[in-house]
Amino acid sequence: MKVNPDSFYGQQEGETILYTLIPHPLTLWLALSKLYLGALALIVTGQIITAQLPAGFGGVAATGSLTGLALAVLGTTAVMQMRAKSRSYITDRRIIRFYAHNPFATAIRSLNWDQAVKVKTFPPNIVFKMARIGTVIVHSKSTIINNDQPIRENMVNNDDIELEEVFYYKDLGNYIDKIIYLYNRQPANLKNLKPFIPKPKGLRY
Description:
Strand order of the largest sheet: 1-2-3-4
Order of helices and strands: EHHEEEEHEEH
Largest sheet: 4 strands, antiparallel
Shape: elongated
Distance between the termini: 32 Å
Helix content: 25-40%
CATH topology of the largest domain: PH-domain like
């Protein structure tokens, strides 16, 4: 499925895109780094095993090297294709997420604003928090939390929309909260809402 930042599959007539969410580049390099470390481990393992074997078993090292290189090349292609297809769109009517589970299949999830009730934001770790990268969860009306269980920030059900690798995640969470408020309380003012820009306050417009 071809992804366009200015339009998306299933976009309704007159539906205005307020923000197109693309995964932060830092997370791409982290994913590729893990992939390359795995490929390097295969190559090194092949070399170590070969060093322990009698002469004539050099094919083990060659196999490890070829496997590692294949993993790096094919893995890079798969990661790049999946990320190119993974986008989320915030519009004046809903939030819709396109997520590639693999290079050949893209899942689509959508939540209309009249079904959205709550927004939660949190960083996955301290490094991402310092980089202002985190997760935004938009809960739907169907979300049910058992009062006997502690409420976790990352509790998600099948109807919620979870946005990961979001730059300025707290600000985007506040922006979505504002959309929900306007949609339910002041729908006429929603058309005057400016698009979200992931920049520090005071530098967005």
